[in-house]
Amino acid sequence: MARHGGRILADQLAIQGVKRVFSVPGESFLAALDGLYDAGIPNIVCRHEGGAAMMAEAHGKMTGQPGVLFVTRGPGASNAASGLHVARQDSTPMVVFVGQIARADRDREAFQEVDYRRFFGPLVKWAAEVDQTERLPEYISHAFHVATSGRPGPVVLALPEDMLSAAADVPDIAPPARIAAEASPAQVAAITEALAKARRPLVVAGGPHWSPEAAAQLAGFAEGFDVPVAVTFRRQGHMDNRHSHYVGDLGVGMNPKLGARLTQADLVLALGTRLGDTATNGYTLLDPTRPGPRIVHVHPDPDELGRVWRPDPGIALPAPAMVAALAALPARPGPWAAWTAAARAEYDAWTTPRETPGAVKMEQVIAWLSRHLPEDAIVTNGAGNYAAFLHRYFAFKGFGTQLAPTSGSMGYGFPAAISASLEHPDRPVICLAGDGCFQMTLNEMSTAVQHGAKVVVIVANNGRYGTIRMHQERTYPGRVSGTDLANPDYPALARAYGGDGVTVAEQADFPAAMERALAAETPFVVELRLDPEALATGFTLSEARAMGEGR
């Protein structure tokens, strides 16, 4: 039976198991909106394509299944690029459908015309344009396969509006049949033999494909072999941070002593991570051009192995498959018990709150959240100086409790929190945001209210782009330019959207504010009035300025 292209597309999404899509509507894909109506797939209508893209990315990060996004041509696609960049750098599966001009008008610089293959090519795993309605099932099936295979990532399909509205009689295509990856005996032996020769091993876990089961198995492997486990930037949910063998995160604002251990290790077992510049402090802790520790690299994409580091060996396999095999082995503790215990002791010392100035103290806010939030609470954030407090002082208890961009994108936390609340309406969702970070996507408050997302936003308001100001004071002390911010009354703004909020100006008022926020049935903003001098480094802005003057 003939269907228009929009219905063919929606039926194919249903077959792929898509639970919801995110969009900002456009006239270029009206047929797709009509198809979604018939297929009964919820459409989360957003206020800006950047926020919609981040919601879709967060869905992919949470579920392991591609987040699906619809945006219109030209400006809509351009606005969405920020979320696609997050998906690419974070190895998150995502499928993006972009409305396109009619096929007969191409190559004339028609209204909002863009060549999406060239525009998105360097940013995504695959970008294509569907010219024939009959081939929609084929393209969509392939898009979902590419988005989830190897190193996951975003895929873009451009949909000419006349192709999408045309009818065709074409069968659907079933989703791909997959066989779970398993580590071979030779691959497992390669790792155990490397460990047998080591004296100072360090496991570094990160990347995609993880799950609660994999996180538990990583802890089991660490116990059985008595090895210390570090995680990469914003992958702290890969292992319970309270575990005796967890030793911290290799990311922005990392514990310097953990960075030193990465340099001192004689074996680095990299599980799923690309071991990039953030984890190695700009390739200074490990340098691909100089001799260093032996690196055994496990990564799902064979093209990643050997691209930066010389692996010894490189194993093309999703990290959780290897972790499952290692956790099943009999215990084999090596001669590095003191090395592991010392690394954990350094982590405990690092996460002991260091006092900052002001009546409201971010280190105490994060410590309270770590102690009092339910273990399954989902905590999101974007980028800013405030995030370093979260990374340092919050103990993530399980996989799926952290949603944050390894790409360092500002504005991510609030859209991600909305997506998380829609996926897990029974779990508390808390977004940490700076005043600059929150203002990038706070218009999605309307989306949260419309679709019933219950999100608590804690806004760290210091009246400035704090991270940039910190670097500015160190490099150009006393010469403030472009880093001050004017801010709204955030609780009043939340109420204008239909939510609620409260301002906290004294630390003693924070617990009661959070109790009220967690009990709310609508989005709730807790605005923290912070001392502008406070920095996550433990230094004040004045001290940072003095360090710059003394360089």
TrEMBL record:
Which keywords does the record carry? Thiamine pyrophosphate, Transferase
Outline the extent of the Thiamine pyrophosphate enzyme central domain.
189-325
Any Gene Ontology CC annotation = acetolactate synthase complex
Q: List residues of the Thiamine pyrophosphate enzyme N-terminal TPP-binding domain.
A: 4-116
Please tell me whether the keyword Transferase is annotated for this protein: yes
Database matches in Gene3D superfamilies: 3.40.50.970, TPP-binding domain (3.40.50.1220)
Thiamine pyrophosphate enzyme TPP-binding domain residues? 382-527
Pfam families on file: TPP_enzyme_C, TPP_enzyme_M, TPP_enzyme_N
**Listed GO biological process terms:** isoleucine biosynthetic process; L-valine biosynthetic process
Q: Which GO terms describe its molecular function?
A: acetolactate synthase activity; flavin adenine dinucleotide binding; magnesium ion binding; thiamine pyrophosphate binding
Segments crossing the lipid bilayer: none
User: Which CDD domains did the record assign?
Assistant: TPP_enzymes, TPP_PYR_POX_like
NCBIfam families the record matches: PRK08199.1
Instruction: Tell me the protein family, please.
Output: Belongs to the TPP enzyme family.
Query: What protein name is recorded for this chain?
Result: Acetolactate synthase-1/2/3 large subunit
Origin organism is Rhodovulum marinum
